[in-house]
Amino acid sequence: MTRAYAFALSLALVTTGIGAASQAPPTDVVAGVASFTPIDKNLTLGGLITPDGMAELKRRGFKTVINLRRPSEANANVEAEGEAVRAAGMKYVNVPFSAGDPYDVASPQVEVFIKALDDRANWPVFAHSVRSHRPTGLLVIKRVLEDGYTVDRAYAAPDTQVLADGSAGSKGMKDFVQKYLQAHGK
Q: At CB < 8 A and 24+ separation, what contacts does 59-64 make?
């Protein structure tokens, strides 16, 4: 099985809700949005999104879409996504973040992301990456630094279980979260 086929199959399974494990995050099946995971009434995280997904986000009342993908990523099409979000009547924020970037490049993006989440004018927010590792890891950081969670409690939340999927993306994000929290005394 090729990596592309395996990814497409896993995306299809996630978006149809087939194959959900007992420890899976509380995702909803939303047409055009992979891994749609409501956190609270003001924040939902997710993975890849299609143009149909943009219309569905607008229909559900979202005001802002935060895309954590970098323009240089394969098939990211950051500019086209921004146009689609704005055409659907929502605000678009691109915070190009990769846990694999050098720490001094990646770490300033955490503050940009958290500031966008904290801005009530943006609520409700849909934040995404390819498989939802990035927004979930950044949510762990926000919970520990701003919301009074312990690191263990932040990782134990059902909506962060995507970081336990064993993939390279989840491992890289968890490594970044640990380094960032250590740098901030946690």
A: 60/30, 61/124, 62/90, 62/124, 62/125, 62/126, 63/90, 63/91, 63/121, 63/122, 63/123, 63/124, 63/125, 64/90, 64/91, 64/92, 64/93, 64/116, 64/122, 64/123, 64/124, 64/125, 64/126
